[in-house]
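Hi there,

I know you've been waiting on this one. I reran it after we fixed the sequence typo, so this is the corrected version. Both the input and the resulting structure follow.
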Amino acid sequence: MDSTQPWGDFHFLNTAFSDVIEANLNAGGKEWINASLVRLSHKGTREKDRTIKRTVKAIDGLTLEYAVPFPLTYIFQPKTIEVYSDIFVFLLQIQRAKSVLERILVRDGKGNQLKIELKVLYAMRSRLSWFIM
């Protein structure tokens, strides 16, 4: 979300997902999912609200679809896949919030009052980071 890449583009999302799966395999990892069965899409946000693109709310429009192979189609029906998609988006939002929180750095505290406020800020950041984990 921080880069200039059009991450909400259908082709970009699916290509990036396939690249991650392939990189995992090349690094000696096991194949844990068939990337051709997974499809990511993004509904997008309103153009007039440009500030939302840098928040976790931008991920709200993300949808994960999985083409369940037969005989599992009897267990994983479309409504079940939709619930899993919502859980996936929620976990992705938590991960995004955690990474943003860990990147907050404030330095060069001059003066006693500012140093005290920075200690409080970092203590709160630490507690939030622990909570999110």
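Quick highlight: The longest strand covers residues 38-42.

Best,
R. S.
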